Amino acid sequence: RHGETDTNAAGIISGSSDKPFLTPAGKSQAEMVGYMALAQIMDNSKTDRIDRIYVSPLTRARDTLAFFRTNAPPDMKLPPVKDDVVLDDMREIDFYSWAMQKKDDLKQKHPEEWAAFKRGDPDGVVVDGHFPLHEVWGRAGDVWREIRSVSSHHQTDDENNNNSNTASSSKHVLLVCHGTLGQALLGSAFGHDATVFRQNPFENCQMAEICWHDEKDVATSWRWIDVCEE
């Protein structure tokens, strides 16, 4: 997830608006996670590279990635910036008329829908005739299909080049996105629908590492990588 934004700090729902910007604290978080999280990945996963980077089109995520890159460990190999893949489906949840409104105001204006949102009930969160949580879960599934189709293609290329070493043929992919979309990505990776919303919330600059084998329909395992202070 991206670093803290002005709207995070002010208690405002951002949704997929591109108005929010990183605060000084958010920039520091992105710098910290760039070094410390990648160092953990290098140590635990025994890898010195990220093969592909996918990022949300929203400025707060792309700025987080820029700080992340600048502070990555010198031994970590990252793909060139020009190869970063911007996926529109990785934008944050679409909240329609709720976007850029204060949480306290939404609680007063839409008490039932807000209560459903807080308890994680995707059927009860209805905004302007839309079901935002179900929609973002659908987009998360599309993101995984895109990423896994590309990874599978690259894996086949490796095999054709007689690259049979397990460590070198594994693909390490970095996604830089948002809190609710992050929950949707994590949940859908294991075949869970939007009813698991709020079970694993992402704090600012929190990262989840997911292991997913090509031959499996769902991911195998995951863990938190959390290096930012509350």
Number of strands: 7
- The low-pLDDT segments are 162-168
Average pLDDT works out at: 91
Secondary-structure element order, N to C: HEHEHEEHHHHEHEE
Instruction: State Rg.
Output: 18 Å
Helix content: 40-55%
Q: Between the first and last Cα atoms, what is the distance in angstroms?
A: 14 Å
The largest sheet, given as strand count, sense and whether it forms a barrel, is: 3 strands, parallel
Summing up helix and strand content along with how strands pair, one would put the structural category as: mainly alpha
The shape is globular
Quickly count the helices. Answer: 8
For the largest beta sheet, what order do the strands appear in spatially? 3-2-5
Beta-strand content bin: 5-15%
What does this structure look like?
This protein has 230 residues and is mostly helical. 43% of the residues lie in helices and 10% in strands. The strands form three sheets. It has a three-stranded parallel β-sheet. A two-stranded antiparallel ribbon has the order 1-4. The chain has a two-stranded antiparallel sheet with strand order 6-7. It is globular and about 50 Å long. About 3% of the residues have low confidence.
Task: Give a quick set of tags describing it.
about 230 residues; 3-stranded parallel sheet; mainly alpha; 7 strands; two-stranded antiparallel ribbon
Outline the secondary-structure elements.
Layout: H1 6-10, E1 12-13, H2 24-45, E2 52-55, H3 59-70, E3 85-86, E4 101-102, H4 103-109, H5 111-119, H6 132-160, H7 166-169, E5 173-176, H8 179-189, E6 207-211, E7 221-225
Parallel strand pairs: 2-3, 2-5
Antiparallel strand pairs: 1-4, 6-7
